[in-house]
Amino acid sequence: MKRFENREWRDSMRLRVDYNNMMQEFVGMRGIGAAMLAEQRPQYEAAALRMEEKRGEMKWRQLPFSQSEVVHQILETAAWVRRNCDAFVVLGIGGSALGPIAVQQALSHLRYNDLPAAKRSGPKLYVEDNIDPERMASLMDVIDPARTVFNVITKSGSTSETMSQLLWATDFLKNAVGDAWREHVIATTDAEKGNLIKIAKENDLRTFFVPDGVGGRFSELCPVGLLAAAVCGIDIEELLAGAAYMDALCSEQDALKNPAYILAALEVLAMKQGCNISVLMPYVDSLRFMSDWYAQLWAESLGKRYACSGREIYAGQTPVKALGVTDQHSQVQLYTEGPFDKVITFLGVDRYRVEVPIPHAYDHIPDVAFLSGHTFNELIKAEQAATEYAVCKSGHMSKTITLPEVNAFTIGELICLFELQTAFAGELLGLNAFDQPGVEEGKKATYALLGKPGFAAKKAELDARPARDMRYQV
Amino acid sequence: MKRFENREWRDSMRLRVDYNNMMQEFVGMRGIGAAMLAEQRPQYEAAALRMEEKRGEMKWRQLPFSQSEVVHQILETAAWVRRNCDAFVVLGIGGSALGPIAVQQALSHLRYNDLPAAKRSGPKLYVEDNIDPERMASLMDVIDPARTVFNVITKSGSTSETMSQLLWATDFLKNAVGDAWREHVIATTDAEKGNLIKIAKENDLRTFFVPDGVGGRFSELCPVGLLAAAVCGIDIEELLAGAAYMDALCSEQDALKNPAYILAALEVLAMKQGCNISVLMPYVDSLRFMSDWYAQLWAESLGKRYACSGREIYAGQTPVKALGVTDQHSQVQLYTEGPFDKVITFLGVDRYRVEVPIPHAYDHIPDVAFLSGHTFNELIKAEQAATEYAVCKSGHMSKTITLPEVNAFTIGELICLFELQTAFAGELLGLNAFDQPGVEEGKKATYALLGKPGFAAKKAELDARPARDMRYQV
Known about the structure:
2 copies of one chain form a homodimer.
Chain A: H1 7-12, E1 16-18, H2 24-27, H3 34-39, H4 41-53, H5 68-84, E2 87-91, H6 95-107, E3 124-128, H7 133-140, E4 148-153, H8 160-177, E5 185-189, H9 195-203, E6 206-209, H10 223-231, H11 236-249, H12 259-272, E7 277-282, H13 290-302, E8 318-321, H14 332-337, E9 342-349, H15 366-369, H16 376-393, E10 398-403, H17 408-429, H18 440-450, H19 456-463
Parallel strand pairs in A: 2-3, 2-4, 4-5, 5-6, 7-8, 7-9, 9-10
Antiparallel strand pairs in A: 1-10
């Protein structure tokens, strides 16, 4: 029996949200008043109802419950990769990269790729989410194609960056292993549509599918994220069980008792008070890339020019990635003394996975000696508490999410929590949290600049731009 | 003769600033009007004059000119480290970490630590700027203390994080190599004051000094940053020469012809129009950590509650780290459709250090085939141009800094440029850009929580906090 099948264990792993430091009673006049939350109750009830009505449409909500067969296939493929490979390279960008990076960093050894093979729980993992030529070239210096599998991930099969990388990888593999290159590529894409499924079928590639209705930034818990995690030895069943557990907690209709809904409600109230910045600041090194994943989820979902009603709203809150304690020495000066324009969400744990003492060495120097005898665990927790205190005392809003510990179950909870927070915030703001019309313009301009057939008009538009004014150049 | 001694070569490496897309003629009504810049001329002239008057006080401005002897010592020590070590570990936080990380990532192989030793230009580099116990423990799994040198960096010698790490490293080394531990620690600190210089003297450690008047975030071009760079095989004389070159360009008194001053002036005008967010978005993977370094410089320098006059201003612009093309699939939706609350600074290059072709492979699929025959260089440049276009078309302000290529000289220029931009912005805002009073509260609270002698009153203050309201917990 797996530990997550035990109800008591699951309840002991429940995430907690504390928003005392958002409230006027604690943070002062620039906080949120209890009356404001109460006034909004009808809006919250209506939005909660819509969330239930749309549950079927939000296909990503089904992922924790619908994938037992897929999980079985993923585990089989992962076992094959782990037996045969030294390196597993994800070719993908956006949601196809940020989820895999975040989960692996949270749940594998903190210096996974740096470990000798014997100490590592799987092959080295590379997630290639940029197309800088220097970076592409540098990858060739550290992997042996004959011992590498590439997982190319794009639902549409039309992502220029990822498809270019596939062209590059195909060529790299053909030069090294000839016709056997097909064994070294796994495609994760739409089951029917697009170029990648076509290429996969023509070449008989191993294939996984991105389910219908699951957009990039909501795709971590489908094969997009699960395969890389399983390859690294992460328990993906526990990850999904954690997400299922949080989904149940977040089915509560009273927004004030629903962790995702209250988090969204607080951010939206803060936005209306002028907080256009949302900082996520884990005091857990392994969660540093959860902030990158969250940054896409929050920015791309809520950054919208139009409401569903068609009204022009230019909505959105800009996510900022910070890290405790590191950014105390970089950003906290601004957070305590700067404008009242942000909400800080601290992420902490009850227990770190190891305890490391601070040894004695210079006991005759009191200003150093007071540290000895404590642990790094105590030090980082004291600094988190101290920063929460200092930020609150300065009148700036914050809230804290606490994981009992970092494991696959709690990471599953956290992913589900943020996804549902984002969806609920979309309902409160009256916008579509699931599209991204604003990225089309840049895509079309890229196509035009590269001479893709069918984009001559866009090319003409670009060519017609006014000349740059030399006065505005230095 | 070194290449940077040649005037023509230096001029060919001059950074360029283009701010057409900040201006109303290009970006529309939400941009900056030429008249606004003209109106501010008296302020700019006055601030430029103050910059000259304060040149002597800004000791960090002397670093490119005053260190020939120090550079010699650094090169000697670096040569010794490179002969004797497999790993060089920086123990430091804030400015002691962000500069070394940024410069090494810019100028070493992109996967430096991952390379086999024979291909690497120096020992592995680890910069430990967090105290998470899991991270401390994981370091022990990847380094051999007998083949490691620790560079502990803290000017004051009272940084709790760094001094705890020194206690840990001392113990780790003593257990492995006994009394020879002293050979494995290099201290970079104040020449006279603080605990670290005392410990260094008592134990006869190798030592480098942080010059008087050089604060953490302005310290990259002193031994704080130069030693790690030299250990990795980076040409630190060229780095300093680049900074000196930019310092001369930025001695121009006409702000509109001074690259640092015009960058600062534009940000300050944008702040007054409601842009409280400053995004730095390199389209160069190797420059991704320059954004972290810039984020500290900009946030900690300008995030101030009080003006020099004593007036309460709660100033500051929140820096955001983005990366092209990666964040096109994460943040650009928000940047084009979201609020008009940010300035985006793109960082690009004329030439990448390698050219990587996009090969032919699936020529029968037109939507993929149009990429083949191009290079990744063309693709990333097209995407940068397309994103600049899309952001501008959506009415959002941006500007672009272009490096002819990434090398030690241009990185030196970039560091000096941002430092002077920050100092000039401080003058325009009438605040002290060189202190950080807002971090004291958190430090004191940490001391109180750890029971440091002398902080009983602060402990009592913390204990007197009102109890958390259970209603605000989920």
